[in-house]
From TrEMBL:
It is found in: Nucleus, Nucleoplasm. Pfam families: THAP (PF05485). PANTHER family: THAP DOMAIN-CONTAINING, THAP DOMAIN-CONTAINING PROTEIN 1. This is THAP-type domain-containing protein. Its main location: nucleus. The keyword Zinc-finger applies. Keywords: Cell cycle, Coiled coil, DNA-binding, Metal-binding, Nucleus, Transcription, Transcription regulation, Zinc, Zinc-finger. It comes from the Eukaryota.
Amino acid sequence: MDHDYIQKPVANKRRNTKYCCVPQCSTYGDSGISFHLFPKDKIMKKKWETALRIGKPISPAMRVCSHHFQASNYFPNSKYNYVLIILM
């Protein structure tokens, strides 16, 4: 007896959930792209929000892709390859 209503197992595809929250940016987690969380400092966070024209409240999961930063914003670090430093 064939049961069409029983779902067949689907291969478990790992979905990359990282994406850029900047309006009009459609970047998803690709190799070579880094994603940055908003600063914890409230003043710096507000500056990022204004500069990037984010029109909604910032959530802890929101990230900004490396396309929105200049190479001069990254500095070598011994623990990580590079560290993002933004001084606005």
